[in-house]
Amino acid sequence: MAYLIKQGVTMAAVIDFYFDFSSPYAYFASTRIEALAGELGMQVNWQPILLGPMFKATGSAALVDIPLKGAYSRHDMQRTARLHGISFTMPDPFPVATVAAARIMLHVGQSDTRLARAYAQRVFHAYYVDGINIGEPEAALRLAGELGLDVDAVAAATAGDAIKSRLRDSVQAAMDRGVFGAPFMFVGDEPFWGFDRLDAIRQWVRTQGAQASSG
Amino acid sequence: MAYLIKQGVTMAAVIDFYFDFSSPYAYFASTRIEALAGELGMQVNWQPILLGPMFKATGSAALVDIPLKGAYSRHDMQRTARLHGISFTMPDPFPVATVAAARIMLHVGQSDTRLARAYAQRVFHAYYVDGINIGEPEAALRLAGELGLDVDAVAAATAGDAIKSRLRDSVQAAMDRGVFGAPFMFVGDEPFWGFDRLDAIRQWVRTQGAQASSG
């Protein structure tokens, strides 16, 4: 694994990537973040969260439900996808509850982080390209089955209290760290909110790298 | 003046640029928008607005006052300025009421749009670089005086009901058009929200231009 030197402290070169499957901008980021990390010699740590509790903390709501901002954001989502060449069809229904998919991803990630990432990418694609309602727990399970996972075993594991409290703890830990939206990225302690901050990550990492080399 | 052809309709190649002097991201945009317009062969129509009434409509508040988002946004403002090489010192007090400066700009713009733009740029610079509290009406007037305007005449004109209702009408017209934040830009009917959408304006105009040439 590559390392970055920042202010004399060596830290693993990891991008922590927080997302809710019901955020189109998180989906856009999910299609680009691995390439960005590769370019920078970094790894991506995929972290499913739930926006609901965060919106309560910030007094916010789903973008598309906010007066004026809702209409704009629907338009901006379509345009952003087009400008970046990302396949995207605004899902209906939208937004949906993503707790089932998030629990499945956490469960899979306990034993295999690569498979968990593949599951997350499959869920995003299913919702924003294939038009599958990932809010339905059966659909979220079926997508796990497509990746070769034992659907009954996954269903049993994700119905248990352990995984439920693990997701709650993850969301709380993210909020304690300052996460209030999605996509949200950290490089070390440096926070980045939004698909439109991927360039800022690139610039920030390169600047830190240059400082480390010359420092 | 240059023109764009869009879907068979000729429209003036103008970027409508809406801003509140109390938005750091609007200040960042103000330092870049003329260069962007020049590059695209377009003009900029500078439109002062007030965010207060818009936040009421969207249930929002000043960014820095929102839990979690406030701390992040202060950090992002500093970083954005640094990454783009823009002089910036977070003002204190912040935010401030910008009604006096907005009225002065509207008043000046009735007879001289170039001078009004120069005034807007001076106000932004005063607040975000020189640390002048532009929320104080006397300070906003003094900046007009620096540009050679008759301070007493400006004070008299901007205390009148005509300019007050003109600003109210401008804010309402902007909201009717879909403006809910700052900076907010339009090219024709195409809306763009945020300093981080200047690249999207460039891409959008070029794509439209290419379509017009080949259509």
- How much helical structure, as a percent, in the residues of chain A? 55-70%
Gyration radius of chain A, rounded: 17 Å
User: What is the multimeric organization of the chains shown?
Assistant: homodimer
- Which whole number gives the mean pLDDT of chain A? 92
Low-confidence stretches of chain A: 6-11
Task: Compute the separation of the termini of chain A in Å.
Answer: 22 Å
Q: Looking across the biggest beta sheet of chain A, what order are the strands in?
A: 4-3-5-6
- Total number of beta strands of chain A: 6
Overall morphology of chain A: globular
| Strand-pairing-aware structural class of chain A | alpha+beta
Beta-strand content of chain A: 5-15%
Q: How would you sum up the major sheet of chain A?
A: 4 strands, mixed
What order do the helices and strands of chain A follow? EEEHHEHHHHHHHEEH
| Most extensive interface between two protein chains, with residue counts | A-B, 31 and 31 residues
Helix count of chain A?
10
